[in-house]
Fold:
Amino acid sequence: MINSKTKVLCLVGKPVRHSLSPIIHNIALNDLNLNYVYVAFEIEGNQLENAIRGIKALGIKGANITMPYKIEVLKYLDELSKDVKEIGAVNTILNENSILKGYNTDGVGALRALEKFTELDDKKVILLGAGGSAKAIATAISEKVSEIVVLNRTENKAVELASRLKERGFNARALKLNNKNLRNEIRNVHILINATSVGMNSDVSPVPKYLLKPGLVVFDIVYNPLETKLLRDAREKQCITINGLWMLVYQGAESLKIWTGFYPNVQLMRETALKMVRKR
Ligand code: ATR
Structure:
């Protein structure tokens, strides 16, 4: 029951109305018997600094930061994790005695989701996209996989991401996202990750169906719709498919661990999120 000792966690972003985070966090907190509540705040861009100050002023224990503030929020924080310095984006804030620490759990969330379905060691990966999510995923998987081929609509962003990976000693290449490059690369890869927003709320896919091959692991970070066109095509071509809900719950679970010290019931979070998605 909410009382005077209840600790507050929150989501800050715009829009947040359709976010599943409050649902999955509150069910997990309740299951762990922790006296916390998780609420969502939709704020305008010119209020971000005030909102972050408010976290300190009100003693809010932790926050998730979502679109479009994951980068801008960095300048209002006191400390940044190693991952955040590498990725340049924050999705989790911990308020530790008024010191605000920034973390990024997107990458490890994606890593856990992938590891649930496949081995990563020595696997070759195509990563579509070079934005914040793609950077977080690349950073998290780079130590395990044998090569990451980054394909992005804006080629120079792919080049920049691959260069950063190479500087850290990892095997990476960059190409423009087009059908010719996809056709050449897909032949030799084990895993394809869509970290672009293509397919979100629309029935389009970044990869033509005829290029998908049986056995390929296809992971789409988009979870709206749950089965994107890419995943539907992949299922029909006998690929191993992983939807974005897995990343959502695993990144949430990692955030909750940072705030409370406890790792939640991921299965419960996922089932609850699934019910919500199916109701929509
Ligand atoms: P996020 O934080 O979710 O990663 P982002 O940083 O805005 O969001 O990145 C969005 C990614 O989706 C980018 O890689 C973007 O490609 P560009 O760098 O060329 O913008 C990709 N993307 C968005 N719309 C796309 C489209 N219609 N076709 C191909 N790629 C697209």
In short: The first helix runs from residue 21 to 31.
